[in-house]
Amino acid sequence: MNDFIPYGRQNILVEDIESVSRVLQSDFLTQGPVVTRFEETVRNLTHSKYAISVNSATSALHVACLALNVKNGDEVWTVPNTFVASANCALYCNAKIDFVDIDPFSWCMSPEALEKKILERLSKNNKLPKVIIPVHLAGQSCEMEKIKEIADKYNIKIIEDASHAIGGSYQGEPIGSCKYSDITIFSFHPVKIITTGEGGMAVCNDEAIANKMRLLRSHGITRDLKTMEKPSENFWYYEQIELGYNYRMPDINAALGLSQINRINSFLKIRDQIAKKYDCAFESCDLKKQRQYENTHSARHLYIIRIKENLHKAFMNKARMSDIGVNLHYLPLHLHPYYQKLGFKKGDFPEAEQFSIEAVSLPIFVDLREEDQDRVIDFVKGYL
């Protein structure tokens, strides 16, 4: 009987446990110094000016939209092949959501489809989005330079959903430098590159945007004399000046993230080795792999292949029966019942729809044993 091989799994060592244990024995379980140290470490890693930790990437997307003043009557565009949070964040702000189809080779937001959609809107005198959210699928950056050129032309803000991509790079810059965006979002869910258990981070280079996100993550409460409406010198005085949320990251989670990020380079190296072994093994197979752009480096959060549509369902079921934890990332958002009630329908975004009936996420994680990867490879090659 073979052991089940999941598609992803966290790597936890004794130093992670000790890092969390030190916090549990300290004076601060939340809102303490470890959160600040973790933010500073991510800021340095990404070459950004500001880092704001939160309790999930979903929360980060929400406060990012609010910090860019997304509100009722506005539109936000993202891609259909992403996790629901990339779109839900707009709805949390009472804005409308729409989608841009994906590139058939990178499976990320297509700059050509983006500009085409914008021009179609302009020809009908319809509203353009206030914000677009490109998603770095599997750790591979979108073509951000092209996307930013388009966005700047039409005065559109950009949030990079880099939930899959911490540690990756684009055109020689770390993903998260915000050279091509206003805000970048990371996820620290257990299957991501590093984990805090649950948690997320927003990075940016604009002080006002950073301050707004910090305020919103903590109930909209301030003790800053410069932002209070009725400043007081009493040390116990504070004011709620915005409608905020309890989105703070506890020190317990930050301690795990701080320990994990010390190993991020080795994590990335191992993931890259696993991906390259898959690449080599599947060279002669009848399948498609994700295009990797020149002068970029994927964080390799996922390893996705595309197989023929008529084989897909049976392949997925047979793999699971063989204790190989394949998965699909993702079902197109516009085909979910909730989004269909908003007016979206099958056929709206054909590239994303075709992707979803061909895509297979294969196991890739730091502790994937060589013999288990060989099992995966043998299964894929044998089936195809």
Detailed description of the structure:
- The structure is a single chain.
- The chain is an alpha/beta fold and 384 residues long.
- It folds into two domains: 14-263, 3-Layer(aba) Sandwich (Aspartate Aminotransferase, domain 2); 265-383, Alpha-Beta Complex (Aspartate Aminotransferase, domain 1), CATH 3.90.1150.10.
- The chain contains 13 helices and 15 strands.
- The chain has helices spanning 14-24, 33-46, 57-67, 85-92, 111-123, 144-153, 207-217, 251-261, 264-281, 309-321, 337-340, 350-356, 370-383; strands at residues 50-54, 75-78, 96-99, 131-133, 157-161, 169-170, 173-174, 183-187, 200-204, 221-222, 239-240, 288-289, 296-297, 303-306, 359-362.
- The protein has a seven-stranded mixed β-sheet with strand order 1-9-8-5-4-2-3, sandwiched between helices. It has a three-stranded antiparallel β-sheet with strand order 7-6-13, with no helix packed on it.
- The protein is globular and about 75 Å long.
- The two termini are 23 Å apart.
